[in-house]
Design goal:
By secondary structure, the protein is mainly beta. Helix content is about 5%, strand content about 40%. The chain has one domain: OB fold (Dihydrolipoamide Acetyltransferase, E2P) (Beta Barrel), CATH 2.40.50.220. Strand 2 and strand 3 form a beta hairpin. The longest helix is centred in the C-terminal third of the chain and has 5 residues.
């Protein structure tokens, strides 16, 4: 799993039919780098998240063959 922080949303007016519902979020990765991940959870900007990638991310969707390479699988609770 990869840890990161949501830095923004990516808006897309057109999508292929097999892309599942959810927001496309830009995530800054701990240790550097950025990626775009599908968010089925409804995370917000600034939120710390856990991400999985590759075949594990795509296999989450059992009813369709989803073209997903990065999937947000958890929101990290942080102490205030």
């Amino acid at each position: 799993m990869i840890r990161g922080r949501v830095t923004g949303r990516v808006w897309s007016s057109r999508r292929i039919d097999t892309l599942p519902n959810g927001a496309l979020l830009e995530v800054s990765l701990d240790g550097g780098g950025m990626l775009i991940a599908l968010d089925p959870l409804g995370c917000n900007e600034g939120e710390a998240v856990l991400i999985t990638q590759g075949s594990v991310a795509a296999a989450y969707f059992t009813k369709i063959k989803a073209p997903i390479d990065a999937l947000i699988i958890g929101s990290i609770d942080e102490k205030s």
